[in-house]
Each structure stands twice: as structure tokens, then as C-alpha cells.
Amino acid sequence: MNKRRLFLGAALIVLGILGPTLLPIHLFGIIPDLYRAIETAHQGLLILVAAKLVLINTLRGVPHYLGTFLVADELYVLGGRYGSLFSAAAPLIILPFVYHSIYLLHGVTYDLGTPAVVTIVGMLLLSAMRRDVPGIMNRALIVLLVLFGVQWLDVMPAFDSFRSGRGEISHEIKAVADFLGSQEVLNFLGCTFLVVILTMAFLLVQLLVAHHREIERERLDRERERELERMRIAALEAKSLREIQSLVHDLKTPLTAIQGLSSVLELTWAAGERGTDLGAVFARMNKAIDAMNNMVSDLLVEKRRQPLEVEELLKYVIAQVSTQQGACTIELKVEPGLPRVAGNRIRLARALANLLENSLQAVPQGEGRITIRALSKPGGGVRISITDNGSGLGEPDQDRVFAPGFSTKGSTGLGLPFAREVIETHGGYLTLSCNAGKGTTAIVDLPGVKESAGAHSGD
């Protein structure tokens, strides 16, 4: 509950009760102008008197109507599950209390007739839109317009039978209009102001609602962007962790080899077997050390390229995701004699692993089938395809599948964008062929290595 708003609402209600003292009729010269209109038979003066009465009634009414509005809003919050009921009951209780208090203090009769009822209905409708029309000044302006439009009902002779304009001065204005034959003029003028002003109030509400919703959309967009950025950072950290874990796993193989060869050397030396071919042992150790050095270089230098055997690369990728395979069948078909591709082994393997992981997530549990094919392309290139029997993607999702953050599985949605980025930096292309309900095929085209060119390093 906002105590400040509740106090402000109560203060405005008190100000409305003091309205007849703060804005007396004689301050606007209404009675003298009305007598002059009778003496001179001047319709213009009569219209001026009617406009003055509408204005003074509007200015007197704005404080207690707006105050009631604010109190109703706070009762909505305070009432919990019954908030709507309390909010709707507030005008029905507060406004009769205000009118009776004005009568007791000033002897002025305020009629709860048609204008008051129409205003209360408008306030209830506006109160229901409290979330879309924030701000006290915005609501004050709307209340002012509604009151100014509705108060014209009090001076329109045509609405006498609808409990309208039963105050003393309103009654005198309509009597003078009857005397001067100006009833049609007042009816037309009042109806015009009523329609125009209420239309302005309606358009203002629409404008404020649209503006507020646009601000809310921008706020939600900013929140989504912050969340997406947080997800990107988390995904990058997770990707780096996976790469490190994969590297550590691969480093264990040459490390184990070095450890075993070192034990052989130690045993050989202890046994005094000097005739052992130590050169072959050292050669194997150096090969293992070179393998570790290449792995670390691939991770540290993104632009590092070396010729890679496609079949070995794909087997390495399958081994990386083998823990996620479960009951899924993965079939590898590699065309003999494929050219090698120039790539960063760690990053290219991670990109292909992302594609394979997507297929593993898409296939039905226990019935999944994934086929990985590697074929040569005219001109020396290589095409790698990963086909699954999953649910596929519908046409609307196919247009957004490479957008960062988009996912149909509740993941970060960064796997495919990362894979495409890595493949494109290797001079290749990534495309998806989807058939809703029948599976997806990820197609990776990579340029082959011209063997005469040798290996290229980005160190």
C-alpha cells in the first residue's frame, strides 16, 4: 500500500468538500450575467452563463472525484483477493458522503443524478485500466475532461427527464432558455461539447494506454536482452569448460603414453638392459609431447589451422558426445579417399559436436537413429551431413533457428550460432534441411586441403 497516495486521495476529498467556499458562485458573476441575459434577451449571455456554471462545477468536482479515484486504487491493493470489490464500492460510498458533507457545511445541494452516475461509471472503467494509465497527472486530466463533458448535461433542457440539472442555478438557466426560446441552442451546444470532450477523453486514454504498453514492451525487451546476454556469457563459459574438459580428456592419452614409456625407461635402466632400443622409446615420447602441444595450441590460438583427416575428426566428435548417446544409434559413413580439411581441431570438433548434440536431443528416446556421412565435393571440398529421425522443425522455427537465444528445447540457443560461426571462419557453410515430423539434416560444406600447399598455422 502506498500511504502517500492514500493521504493525497483523502486530502483531495477534503479539498472537494471545501469547493463551494474556495470557488463561490459570485466569483464568476453567474447571477448578474443571468439577470442581464433576461433583461436584454441575449442568447450569447445565456450561453456564457451556462459555460461558467459547467466550468465551476467541473473545478469543484475534480478534487473529490480524483481523490476517490486514488483511494479506490489503494483499496484495490489493500483488499487482496477482494480488492476489485473494495475498489468498485469506494465511489458509491465516498461520493454520497462528500455530497452530504457539502450540504451540511455550505447548504449547497449536489445532486447524484445522471452526470454523477455517468462520471462514476467512467471512473470505474478507468480504474479497471489502472495498470495501463499510470500517473496522477494523467488521471487528473482524464477526470477533468470527463467532468467537463458530462457537466453539460446539467444545462441541457432535453435531459430534464433523466434526473439531470436539478440544482437551483441549473434550473434557472433552463427556465431562462425556455423564456428566451433558446432551448434548442442549449441542447445543441451541450450535446456538441459532451460528444467532443468525451471523445477527447477517450482518445487520450487510448493514447496513454498505447504509450504505457510501448514503454512496458521496451522494458521487457531490455530485460530479455539482459537475460540473453547473461545466457550468452554463461554459454560461453560452459563452452570454454567443455573445450577444456575435452582437451584434458585428450591430453590424458599422450600423458598416459609418456608415463608408460617413462616407466619402461626406469625399469630398463634399473635392470641394466643397456641394449634396449631407447631411440624408439624417445621417438614415441616426443610424438606424444607433440600431440599435447598441438592440442594446447588449437585451444589458445583460434586461427591455427592444420590438415585434419575427416574420418578421425568425426570419430573424435562421436567420442566427445558418447556419454549423451544413451540408446541412440549413431552410424558413421565416410567415403574412401576424402581430401583432408584445414582446421582448428578443437573448435571445429566443438562445432560439429554441437550439431550432433542437437540431433541427440531431437530423436525419440530408445528409437533414435543418427547417420553421419562424409562425401567428397567437386573441386576438392568435403560435405559432412548429420541426419536424425527426430521431430524436425516447423516452417516458422526454421527462419529463426540460427538466431542467438532461440531454442525449442529450453537450452541457451547458442549452439547453432556458434557452430555456424566456427564453420564460416573455416571457409565453409552450414545449412539445415528440416521436415516437420520426419527429422533434420545438418549439412556442413568445408574446403579441402591442397596437399601441395602443406599445413598452415595461425601462430
Write structural notes for this entry:
- The chain is an alpha+beta fold and 459 residues long.
- 63% of the residues lie in helices and 10% in strands.
- The protein contains 14 helices and seven strands.
- The protein has helices spanning 3-17, 19-22, 30-40, 43-78, 83-106, 114-128, 136-150, 168-180, 183-271, 278-300, 310-320, 345-362, 395-398, 415-425; strands spanning 306-308, 329-334, 341-343, 369-377, 381-388, 429-435, 439-446.
- Strands 2-4-5-7-6 form a five-stranded mixed β-sheet. The protein has a two-stranded antiparallel sheet with strand order 1-3.
- The two termini are 64 Å apart.
- The count of helical stretches stands at 14
Low-confidence stretches are 453-459
Largest sheet: spatial strand order: 2-4-5-7-6
* Main beta-sheet annotation: 5 strands, mixed
Layout of SSEs?
Elements: H1 3-17, H2 19-22, H3 30-40, H4 43-78, H5 83-106, H6 114-128, H7 136-150, H8 168-180, H9 183-271, H10 278-300, E1 306-308, H11 310-320, E2 329-334, E3 341-343, H12 345-362, E4 369-377, E5 381-388, H13 395-398, H14 415-425, E6 429-435, E7 439-446
Parallel strand pairs: 2-4
Antiparallel strand pairs: 1-3, 4-5, 5-7, 6-7
Key words describing this protein structure:
single chain, 459 residues, alpha+beta, 5-stranded mixed sheet, two-stranded antiparallel ribbon, 7 strands, 63% helix, disordered C terminus
Short synopsis of the structure:
The chain is an alpha+beta fold. The chain is 63% helix and 10% strand.
